[in-house]
Amino acid sequence: MLADRCRLADSLLSRGVGLLFSAPLRAGEGLRITRTSSITMLFMRFAIDAVFVDRAGRVVKVAERLRPWTLAASSFRAAEVVELPVGAIARSGTQVGDDVSYE
Q1: Structural domain contains residue 99
Q2: Containing domain of residue 26, as a range?
Q3: In the list 9, 50, 51, 89, which could disulfide-bond 14, CB 3.0-4.6 Å?
Q4: Where are the alpha helices (DSSP H) in the chain?
């Protein structure tokens, strides 16, 4: 399990703001950003893990320990990104090819 408390960013505003004004994510928390294949870490105050997911719900890229103030991470095959606290990918064993489902 990647997260048991995952907020949804599905509007233009919520996707654009993302985690900018949030406290660092705690274990079990996440942010699912729909309709995007990339994220930027500009103006972020904390590091995150990111899982890039295609339209079929399959993981196409994992990015661990993305540091604040780095330009971007992307995958042209992704349709959405799940942002997670650092260490979530390692703890869950998530890897490219895994299926992601939401409840």
Answers
A1: no
A2: 5-92
A3: 9
A4: 12-17, 88-92
